[in-house]
Amino acid sequence: MSGPAAVVCGLGTWVPPYALTNEELSALVDTSDAWIRSRTGIGRRHIADAATATSDLAVEAGGRALKSARAHAGPGVDAVVVATTTPDRPCPATAPLVAARLGLGTVAAFDVAAVCTGFLYGLAAGAGLIAAGTAGRVLVIGAETFSRILDPADRAGRAIFGDGAGAVVLRAGEAAEPGALGSFDLGSDGTGSDLIAVRTGGSRQPYPAAGQAADPYFRMNGKAVFRGAVERMTASSRRVLARTGWAGQRPDLVVAHQANLRILHAVADRLGVARADCYVNLDRVGNTAAASLPLALGDAGRDGVLNAGHRVLLTAFGGGLTWGACTVTWPDIEPA
């Protein structure tokens, strides 16, 4: 007999106050608003100041999610999962610090590193803890300060990526109730690990001694990633939709990783979903990697696009390479 289902009962988001517009970015690197919008659909992205770390964003979003969940699940959680590519430090994980700063005591806390698919992997981990009976409530956070790992001279990277955080609270419940996470499909292909990478700083290529060459910045093969993102998110989405029991009905809303407007449209077209039903907020926040999905869910709720009872498909693609999808019938909650 399977264990309890993981039910979404709280949602919170946070972005740094400063939004860097395309016009402002054009004064810093060789680009333009027209160039950025035509290739990505992005108009601005939020950038954390020098005093703000990933844990700060995670605490803000996590605290809001806990507030949102209080009416449905009571105070506190039993575990914290932080999905991030930009932890405060290489060691230790960021999640224990976030749990402590949120006043959650000595709960289990760990990080998940799956780049832009990180939040989906984190949801699956949280759902597994609940199904196993290890936790009754789990706080899952996607948080990034991606601006810290971008090459200042890389006009493409600086145009695409921004900082932010989003979080959900999961509680143990029944599979048939609103908010219950449905089927997951997760995958990876390590033969493409060099397509999205920060090459320096790990055991393969440690930081060199003074005077030696190093590349500490994020690098991406945009064309190959574009093709992979469309193919993998489409295939993964088809697999979970085939297992949802929605009797062949299309989802009411697709919330995909906010990487590029052309990718979002291509995935919607391949799934036979109207482009208007594929939610877009990357024009306002850019690509926020592991924070992308929860930030999009929060904005969709505030925009009145995501409402209780909607059948929602979540999907993402990221470094690793990693990808995934899952389904949820949205509950009656207010994003904080």
UniProtKB/TrEMBL annotation:
The active site is at C116, H257, N287. It catalyses: malonyl-[ACP] + acetyl-CoA + H(+) = 3-oxobutanoyl-[ACP] + CO2 + CoA. InterPro entries: ACP_syn_III_C, ACP_syn_III_N, FabH, Thiolase-like. One of its GO terms (biological process) is fatty acid biosynthetic process. Keywords: Acyltransferase, Cytoplasm, Fatty acid biosynthesis, Fatty acid metabolism, Lipid biosynthesis, Lipid metabolism, Multifunctional enzyme, Transferase. It comes from the Bacteria. Residues 110-190 form the Beta-ketoacyl-[acyl-carrier-protein] synthase III N-terminal domain. It is found in: Cytoplasm. Coiled coil: none annotated. GO terms for cellular component: cytoplasm. Pathway: Lipid metabolism; fatty acid biosynthesis. Its main location: cytoplasm. Residues 241-330 form the Beta-ketoacyl-[acyl-carrier-protein] synthase III C-terminal domain. The keyword Lipoprotein does not apply. Belongs to the thiolase-like superfamily. FabH family. Homodimer. This is Beta-ketoacyl-[acyl-carrier-protein] synthase III. The gene is fabH.
